[in-house]
Write a structure and sequence with these properties.
The protein is α+β, with helices and mostly antiparallel strands. It is built from 3 helices and 7 strands. Helices cover 22% and strands 38% of the residues.
Length: 112
Amino acid sequence: MHTYLFVDGLDLVARSDSRMAGHAPKRLLRPGGPLCPADTLRTAEVATQEWPEPGPDTLTFRVRLRGAAVIWSGLMYPGPDGRVVEEVRFRLEQYLGEVGRAYEALQGRPGR
């Protein structure tokens, strides 16, 4: 099982590098995990190369909290208009709510 990270309806992992697959949800969504924002800049490894065969390449970006915004930077994927997306911002309350909702849903699944 792997995680899909959608931003504005686009799969960030697949659009960044189609060879990649997102890490397991329990790894990414856990409290204090890589997607958890902090005042200090963190590097989040979110995916690993799976195709054409498993490899050493990973997909990372930076996560930080700035005021009431969570910022993902160091991105490089084509947006809906074809322009390169290098940074996205989320409202802190909504971001934490979505990560928390996904984590709680994961906890209710057998074999988590």
